[in-house]
Description:
The protein is of the alpha+beta class.
Amino acid sequence: MFTRYLYLYLGINNEQxxxxxxxxxxxxxxxxxxxxxxxxxxxxxxxxxxxTDFTRKNKLTFSSVALKILNSFQNSVEFDxxxxxxxxGIKPVSAGAxxxxxxxxxxxxxxxxxxxxxTYINSLSPKLWKGYRLIAGDGTSISLPVSKSIIKHFGLxxxxxxxxxxxxxxxxxxxxxxxxxVLDSVITPFSTGEITSMETMIKQLKIDKSxxxxxxxxxxxxxxKTMINSDLKFCVRLKTSQSLxxxxxxxxxxxxxxxxxxxSEGEKVTCEKKGLNTDMIHVRATKIILPSGxxxxxxxxxxxxxxxxxxDMRELYFKRWAIEEAYKKLKPKMKLEQFGCRKPEGIxxxxxxxxIMLNITNIIGQQAEPIxxxxxxxxxxxxxxxxxxxFKFIQxxxxxxxTSIDLQHIVxxxxxxxxxxxxxxxxxxxxxxxPHSKRKRRYSPVYK
Length: 448
């Protein structure tokens, strides 16, 4: 009854109310199936280091340890044990006891849970652009805790004269920029390289009628060849200062044209190492002139200019910005780099836990969108839900979300809270870059 009055107060009509309630109920039922995986006896026996793990009556159960890792570590592990475990009806344990328990859970558990979330995402109707699903790919560096085992696995990135060490990993994701879902993700030693990880993920992801959007760091001949061999459509920004191919495009009198890309000697060597042929590739080059006068060059195989014309190419590449926002959510907002572990296994556990929670926040948050749209339909700007607040709402109701019998009520309550916290979408906002002085930081100097 309270929910009905709240919707009426927000200006939601009965038809919209029924539709939103049905969507919320469907979301709750799907999430319940995913969450049941955590407490399933088969999961516990198959995804622990030994089949006898978590079988005795210890304080820490499989589900309590898994939930704490999914909940992330906003404070010290010791403090989190004293505040989180009592919410599950478990007496606080030491950080050492939790550390021993967490490594009994295989990384495969988090990979399988992540895949279940993605499988559910792929069952939903994605938002499209001109009939295409837009998938952006990008990478970022992740600052890791410094320990012997982490250095051994991920490698030492740098060491100063006073022996201050830095350990970094590379993370890459494929992101549906229209629907705001992470479709694939990987974290690797820094030495692996983002291009290698990206090419592997691109070959593995099978989605019909999609366009891959990549930044200039991935515009290598081998990456373009990989996408062409996989029969994928793409739009990639080209570095304009490092190759004869780029200079040829910049020097052309045309702003949108087709041409052949012949690999350089270095690009031929790279292709041969990856088992790719070195035949020339036919591409479309589109020049985008920015307000500053700078020229961006987009390389694509979107040859039907009547379907996607020059101005569409500008809009298409701009859609890639959503993946930058995803990294902002993962790093400064979700505090991905605030790890609560000292072993590489823990790094993988927490990385995929963040990906899972990012997607779950988006899944629940998107149920508030039709409510917000109805409420603000007569306003000047469109509105969207405040993602940062949505994540905090879910964090504050984390235990109830994963353990409640009445999950529909919990999800409905979260949707209501999220629908009331919204921000305006102001089009064509531009901000000039302001140079900042260098300063020592606790975490990685980049948020993306």
